[in-house]
Write a structure and sequence with these properties.
The protein has 228 residues and is α/β, with parallel strands linked by helices. Helix content is 49%, strand content 14%. It binds cytidine-5'-diphosphate.
Amino acid sequence: MKKKITIAIDGFAACGKSTLAKDLAKALGYTFIDTGAMYRAVAFYCLEHQLISEDGILNTEQIDAALPLISIELSSDQKVWLNQKDVTQEIRTPKVAGIVSKIASIKAVRIKLVEQQQAMGSQGGIVMDGRDIASVVFPKAELKLFVRASDEVRTQRRLAELQAKGESMSEADVLANLKSRDLQDSTREESPLIQVPEAIVLDTSSHTRESQLEWALEIANQLLEEKE
Ligand code: CDP
């Protein structure tokens, strides 16, 4: 039987990480874990329970105290469950996007989610995407990819996703949110987004969904052959 490896995919907002991770996991028969969805679920909980104001003022003490009350599950049909409630749609709104990076900068939040992510991937056979997967969650992952895309492509992709869900946001606001999250994510004190030196970089700007999968699958299969 083929050995199962751990694949870590990191990158900036809306660069196509999750699409690639999902497709790669399906092709290899691995589990896909979208860690961004977990941070978004915590952010949604904080909004619902007024632990953060709409203009982004955090009540860190209350958030720390609420963490034991927050349970997040990702089901194999890609649904996101917060305390047994399906929040798959709710976590993708501009409101959540507006505050999630603040929530993700809280140390206690990261400790809780990273622990859960490490447990989810402890048996290998996973493709996990996020910001700190190769650097913090699975520093020993056999394959590390860093995904990039131009601002223009990222903006158009996110706009199309939002429009498909009936959300309205201007192009300028979408780009401003992406840039602001990139800055917060890569400059925060706790496990900032970094490109680890051993990561293989993929710019998805001029790739189709199929061609980026083909590219990644070739690398993964080569690695798997070497390991046999
Ligand atoms: O899909 P998109 O690129 O917009 O972002 P996401 O992957 O859903 O992640 C949402 C936010 O969660 C990011 O902007 C980060 O602030 C945070 N995040 C993180 O800090 N660490 C991760 N491993 C994943 C996401």
